[in-house]
Amino acid sequence: MRTALRVDLLHALENKDNRRPWHEVLEQARRRFALADELGIDGIWIGEHHFDHMGVDQSPNPALLLADLASRTSRIRIGIAAVILPAWHPIRLAEDLAMLDQMTGGRLDVALSRGILQAEIVNLNAEADRSDDARSKAIFAERLGLLRAAWAQDPLRWSSERFEYPHPDTKWPGGPSKYTDENGKATGMAVIPRPRQPGGPSLYSVTDTTGGFVAAAQQGLKTITWFPTRGVLDGLNTAYRAEAIRGGGTPLQDSSAVLRGCLIAPTDAEARELVEPEVTSSFEYIKKVRGIKVWLDEGEDPDDPAIQATAPFDLLFERDHLLVGSPDTVAEKMLKAVRENNASHFVLSPSLTENDLCVERTMLLLAEEVLPKVRAAVHG
């Protein structure tokens, strides 16, 4: 039986060059969340970013922000993609996320990351600088273990390289309890509240490498991925499943959630005209940072003159990185991913984020024309 199709949105709090007062950025996010909930879209995610003077995504406290945004919804799932785990104290994170899960009635999903931008990581936790890959991974694993223990253990008892709970000198007033001995010395800690969802929110890793997928399977995390498509995505999903089975567990997912840029307009031509400048700009930036290979399929040569000469929009569209076009075109693209890559969870990032008319039209066409067609084809 095929896994139920899930289609979410990713909302970036974009404010290019800080042109708008930040309260307008907040109000825009509020409108988007309320509309997504009203339209019956399955979920909506925000990210975490710090020191963002460029205005790419100004969301330094996603837990606090989601407490406000989610209060304007009633049914849609809400998510953070992704919490920069090394930047947080894991107990405080456990408390904040549990509180948020309680406040939303158990609608929270959480993706975790070691961090991407060096400026964010080193200015919040210099020890976690990813230039030391082994140490960065160890810090992530330690915090992940403590986060989970805080939700699972009562009382919490923990000892690792960087954390010890209770602190040896901890005392509480009052008589003996399951948290204290007869002298009032703490023997364990109460982490309150617990999440509304049994075991806590679903946890994801945001990754696009084989090593990242293998690590996610080892750590019992689902995955969200951006760049990989076609054969590359198939290989990553295969590596995840194999590692989960090798470890004696059942894979948490049949295939990764896939993040894709999205813009829907009445015609393919109008959609392309609107979005192509943004696609080209993003492509050129990522090409400088990571190279063209991240966009390519398995076995494609990044130095192939034909690939080098292809317009960025065509290169990305042909390799299924973009869900851009008319409702029929976008529905067909989604169905292709379902049939060829076994995709069952999409996270769509609307292009032209600051343009309310384009984004809201994309959301309306997605809900009213694309998803009914896709779900009918998938589920019959």
Structure overview:
With 380 residues, the protein is an alpha/beta fold. The protein has helices spanning 22-39, 62-70, 90-103, 118-124, 133-152, 210-218, 230-246, 268-290, 305-309, 312-318, 327-341, 356-379; strands at residues 6-10, 43-46, 77-84, 108-113, 158-159, 164-165, 202-206, 222-225, 257-264, 322-325, 345-350. The strands form two sheets. The protein has an eight-stranded parallel barrel, surrounded by six helices. Helix 11 (327-341) crosses helix 12 (356-379). The longest helix is centred in the C-terminal third of the chain and has 24 residues, at 356-379. The termini are close together.
Report the major sheet: 8 strands, parallel, barrel
Distance between the termini: 12 Å
Strand order of the largest sheet: 1-2-3-4-7-8-9-11
**Uncertain runs with pLDDT below 50, 5 residues or more?**
none
Q: Could you give the count of β-strands? A: 11
Q: Outline, from the CA principal axes?
A: globular
Helix-strand category: alpha/beta
Count of discrete alpha- or pi-helical segments spanning 4 or more residues: 12
**Mean of pLDDT:** 96
The ordered H/E elements are EHEHEHEHHEEEHEHEHHHEHEH
Helix content: 40-55%
Rg, nearest Å: 22 Å
Quick gist of this model?
The longest helix is centred in the last third of the chain and has 24 residues, at about 355-380. The chain has helices spanning about 20-40, 60-70, 90-105, 120-125, 135-150, 210-220, 230-245, 270-290, 305-310, 310-320, 325-340, 355-380; strands at about 5-10, 45, 75-85, 110-115, 160, 165, 200-205, 220-225, 255-265, 320-325, 345-350. It has an 8-stranded parallel barrel, surrounded by 6 helices.
